[in-house]
Amino acid sequence: MTGTEPKKKGFLSRWLGTSEPAPSEEPASTAHTTPAPASEEIAPAAPPETVEPIQAEATASPATPEEAAELDATAESQSAAPDDLAPEPSAPAPTEPARKGWFERLKSGLSKTSTRLTESITGLVTKRKLDQDTLDELEEVLLAADLGIETSERITAAIAKGRFEKTIAANEVREILAEEVARVLEPVAKPLVIDETRKPHVVLVLGVNGSGKTTTIGKLSAKLSREGRRVMLAAGDTFRAAAIDQLKVWGERTGVPVLARDVGSDASGLAFDAIKQAQEGGYDVLLVDTAGRLQNKEGLMAELEKVVRVMRKVDATAPHDVLLVLDATTGQNAMQQVEVFRERAGVTGLVMTKLDGTARGGILVAISARHGLPVHAIGVGEGVDDLQSFSAKDYARAIAEI
Ligand SMILES: Nc1nc2c(ncn2[C@@H]2O[C@H](COP(=O)(O)OP(=O)(O)O)[C@@H](O)[C@H]2O)c(=O)[nH]1
Ligand SMILES: [Mg+2]
To answer: What residues form DSSP beta bridges with 167?
Structure first.
C-alpha cells in the first residue's frame, strides 16, 4: 500500500465528451406492439403537481417531507450516509463535505476484495517455487475473487511466463495482476457521452430491484446539471409510490423537473410523454427511471421492450443510451443480468454501484472481459457526489493494492 496517490483527473472533464453517433437501429416493428398510447394517456402537459419546475435549490417545495423522510430512511439503510441524503427541502442542495480523494475511496471500498486476494497471493508464493501446483492455486484464488475464468487464466499465464520453477515475490504477482486487470478494463472505461445535437439525449436506466438505478439517476442529474445541461427526469418506476417519490426528491435536490404519474400508470406512456415534453421544452438530457426487474421475469422484460418501442414513436433514435445499473455486491449474478438485459433491451453501457465496501469487486473485470460493454461510471456511496468516472488503472491498482 502506498502512502500518497496522485490527484485524479477532474471528474467533470472526464464526463464531458464530444458527440457520438446515435445507435442506428431501425425503429422496431409495430406489428405486435400496443398502439401508441391513446390520446388521453398522452396528456399534452402532465398534471401540474407532477412536474416540478426547475427551481432554485433553496426554494424547493417542502411538499412531502414525511414521505421523503420515510423514503430516506429506507434509502439510507445500507450505510451511514452523509447528510446529503437528508430530506431538508429548504437546505441548499448537495453540499459535499471534504472527502477523501476518489482513489482512496475506491481503494478502501475494494479493500475486502483486494485484501483477501493479496493475502492469499502472499501466502501462496512466499518461500515457494512457482510450480504448476502453485499456479493452479493462484488461479483458484483469482477465480474466488470473481475475476472470471478468462482473466484468471491470462493472469496466471502472465505470471508463469519466464518464471516457472523460480521464486517470485508477492508484490511482483500483484504488479502483474494489476497490469492484466488494467488491460481488460482499459477498452471499456468510457465516459457517458451526451450528444448535444439531440434535444433530448434520452438515457434509459435499467436493472434489478435495488441495484441503484434511482440513486444513479439522481447523481447523474446533479453532474449533468452542473455541467450546464438542462436535465429532465421521468419516474418510469410506476410500480411503487416510494420509487416515484424517491425520484422526486432527487429532482428537488438537483433542481431538475420530474415527470411522474400515479402508481400503476403505464411506464411506456410515461416515457412517451416525457420525450415529448423534453423535446418541446428544449431539454438536453432526459433520464428515464424504470422499475426494477429480475432478468428471469419474462413479462417484465417484455414490458421493457415495449417502453423502447413506444419511445421510438416519438424519437426513432431513442433511447440514445441504455444504462444497466449493476450492484457489485451481487457478484456472479450480475454477469447473468448483463446477458439478459443486453439481449432484451440493447444495453449500451454499465454503471456498477456499491463499490464502497464489497468483496466482489472482481466481477466487473469478468463482465468486462466477457462483454466489452462500456463502463461509464461507478458508485462508491449513496451521496450525490458518489458517482465516479471509471478509470481502468485506478480500479486495477485498487484491486491489487498497489
Ligand atoms: N453504499 C452504496 N449504496 C448505494 C449506492 N448506490 C445506491 N445505493 C443504495 O442502494 C439502495 C437502492 O438504491 P436505489 O437507487 O433505490 O435502487 P433501485 O431500486 O435500482 O432504484 C439505496 O439504499 C441506495 O442509497 C452506492 O454506490 N453505494
Ligand atoms: Mg428505483
So the answer is: 129
